Automatic annotation (TrEMBL):
Its cofactor is Zn(2+). Keywords: Metal-binding, Oxidoreductase, Zinc. It holds the Pfam family ADH_zinc_N. PROSITE patterns: ADH_ZINC. Residues 16-341 form the Enoyl reductase (ER) domain. Belongs to the zinc-containing alcohol dehydrogenase family. It comes from Algoriphagus yeomjeoni. It comes from the Bacteria. GO terms for molecular function: oxidoreductase activity, acting on the CH-OH group of donors, NAD or NADP as acceptor; zinc ion binding. This is Alcohol dehydrogenase/L-iditol 2-dehydrogenase. InterPro entries: ADH-like_C, ADH-like_N, ADH_Zn_CS, ER, GroES-like_sf, NAD(P)-bd_dom_sf.
Length: 344
């Protein structure tokens, strides 16, 4: 097996469109790692950003893309306990952490500033075999197929933003800005939490807003002020900003009610040129949300397994990794919400 090579989607340079299929050897594993044979890997907005080179994080070129994945354990390192060959697993994304970092010691290793993830810091999963530290693993419940289980990661991003970093009560009125994968999943989780939920997009997002409707949320194009104020004229209890630009914070400050909250989960490197005074005047709490940790993954796997959270509506298709370009394009153009790849 060690001499065999497998096709991988490799991001090889900083330059725009520096992604191609390369044949790579099966990775060597350390004594605390397992070798995972990938069944499915989701394409993330961040994979697209590295492809178009408008990402804002350091990338260890050349690197295999892909951090939303699941598969079967192909071999286990000498010091790994509790896992065996053939186990069905998904992997968290924090491939490298410093266990001595104070954030790691409090269980928030996702916030360890030295952490490095699959797909940018170390080789990711858009290939047949990936090396995974055993501490990253979660068991996939029986009956949950890999094409759904591989989306545990974006679901965990949404769960952290909505159910952990936001305070949401049944009956709260929630507006999600941005109908991408994370936005739609945030809307779905807010719905599970008992919220009355709307999702805001642009004219070009019509298709994705239609998909969001299957989660029982109200799609809104361009302007959500009427929906925000229709109950008592004051605005929504919670705004989840899942758009990929920073300027939407202004919309969030406008739509939120006094004493309400804004949770920002969408990245946007451009500086804002507006006043934050509405935050002060309305006594609003602004909360960032990043990544996820072990307990969140366990909760999400439970929700996926019971069908309480259903990712099927957002899956736009499954492509062999050699057809990564089409899968990336379809997501990039907004034609599909989520593309999934399968190793060849
Ligand atoms: Zn992702």
């Amino acid at each position: 097996m060690s001499s065999a090579k497998n096709a991988a989607v490799v991001n090889y340079a900083e330059k725009k469109h520096s992604v191609e299929i390369r044949e790579i050897p099966v990775p060597e594993i350390g004594e605390e790692d397992i070798l995972l044979e990938v069944e499915n890997v989701g394409v993330c907005g961040s994979d697209l950003h590295q492809w178009t080179s408008d990402h804002s994080w350091p990338v260890n070129y050349p690197v295999v893309l892909g951090h939303e994945f699941g598969g079967k354990i192909a071999s286990v390192g000498d010091r790994v306990t509790g896992w065996k060959t053939g186990d069905r697993v998904v992997s968290e994304t924090a491939a490298i952490i410093d266990p001595q970092n104070p954030m790691s010691k409090t269980g928030l290793y996702n916030l360890d500033p030295t952490r490095k993830g699959f797909g940018y810091g170390v080789n990711g999963a858009m290939t047949r075999f990936v090396r995974v530290p055993a501490r990253c693993l979660h068991s996939v419940p029986e009956g949950l197929p890999f094409e759904e289980a591989c989306l545990t990661e974006p679901c965990s991003v949404a769960y952290n933003a909505v159910a952990v970093n936001s305070h949401i009560k049944p009956g709260d009125r929630v507006i999600v800005i941005g109908p991408g994968t994370i936005g739609i999943l945030c809307a779905a989780v807010a719905k599970i939490c008992g919220g009355d939920v709307a999702i805001l997009g642009l004219e070009k997002d019509r298709g994705r807003l239609e998909i969001a409707k299957s989660y029982g949320v109200t799609p809104i194009i361009n302007d959500a002020s009427e929906w925000a104020r229709k109950r008592d004229g004051l605005g929504a209890d919670l705004i989840i900003d899942a758009a990929g630009i920073s300027a939407t914070l202004k919309i969030a400050m406008d739509l939120v009610r006094p004493n309400g909250q804004i949770t920002k989960v969408g990245w946007g490197p451009t500086p804002c040129n507006f006043s934050l005074d509405p935050l002060v005047q309305k006594n609003v709490r602004l909360q960032g949300s990043f990544s996820h940790n072990w307990p969140i993954w366990e909760k999400v796997l439970g929700l996926l397994s019971s069908g309480t959270l259903d990712v099927k509506p957002i899956i736009g298709g499954i492509w062999p990794i050699t057809e990564w370009h089409e899968a990336f394009e379809k997501m990039h153009s907004g034609e599909v919400v989520k593309s999934i790849l399968k190793p060849v």
